[in-house]
Amino acid sequence: MNKKSTGIIYPIILKVPDEKQALSGKDSMRFLRQYARQAVISSAQKNGIDLTVLESDRNGAPVSSNGVYWSLSHKPGYVAGVISDNQIGIDIEPIRPVSRGVFDRVIDNDERHLADRLSDALFFRYWTAKEAVLKAAGVGLKGLSKCKIQRIIDATTLIIFFQQMHWTVEHAYLDNHVASVVRRGKDIQWIIPDSSH
Question: Hey, which residues does 79 pair with through a beta bridge?
């Protein structure tokens, strides 16, 4: 693996081809995992890094190699992948209706008051941001209740407090989906498919 340092993080989002969206069960999961790994490899290539092996631990969590950290996410319509020389996390979700009970389990009163109004889009903005931070921290969803939105900077950036640290998260929106990536002091340049085709 050749490593080149860069001050930019390139999160890559790939649209799942229509014929692959028709897959179900294990075939769908196998394809989505592999396609998301292609997004990770594309992110590495944008950074001038030849990353051909992506190792996971026994729980399926990404394992860093030679100072390169990676993360991926996949849903039926889109996959996302990213690499960085810092801990990194990415998540993508379609925006869809959420029950009040789920909303209340994920978003507390302090977090609610940060926004002008509550909506399904806000829920998934918060959810993907928290998931990205939890992936970067390597703790998974067991840390969800301790991962708190602290401040909304603007429509695409917010701050989370977790493990005694402030984490900056940046969002991208496409085709009724929201994606979030941990910034960690770097500039973000999203690579997103043109959804008009």
Answer: 14, 74
Nearest-angstrom CA–CA distance, 174 and 36: 17
The residue type at 28: S
What is the DSSP secondary structure assignment for residue 140, as one 8-state letter?
A: G
Closest CA to 179 of 52, 10, 27: 10
Output the pTM of the full model.
0.93
Q: Could you report the per-residue pLDDT of 48-94, keeping only the tens digit for each?
A: 998 878 998 888 889 898 889 999 999 999 999 999 999 999 999 99
Q: For residues 136 and 147, is the Cβ–Cβ distance under 8 A? A: no
The DSSP annotation for 171-192 comes to EEEETTEEEEEE-TTSEE--B-
Whether residue 136 contacts residue 186, with contact meaning beta carbons closer than 8 Å, is answered with no
Phi, psi torsion values for 151, nearest 5 degrees: -155, 140
HEC sequence for 72-134: EEECCCEEEEEEECCCCCEEEEECCCCCHHHHHHHCCHHHHCCCCCCCHHHHHHHHHHHHHHH
Domains and CATH numbers, the chain: 8-188 (3.90.470.20)
CA 173 to chain centre: 12
SS3 18: helix
Query: Each residue of 164-184: pLDDT tens digit?
Result: 999 999 999 999 999 999 998
How many C-beta neighbours within 10 Å does residue 163 have?
A: 12
Of 84, 95, 64, 74, give the one whose Cα is nearest residue 11: 84
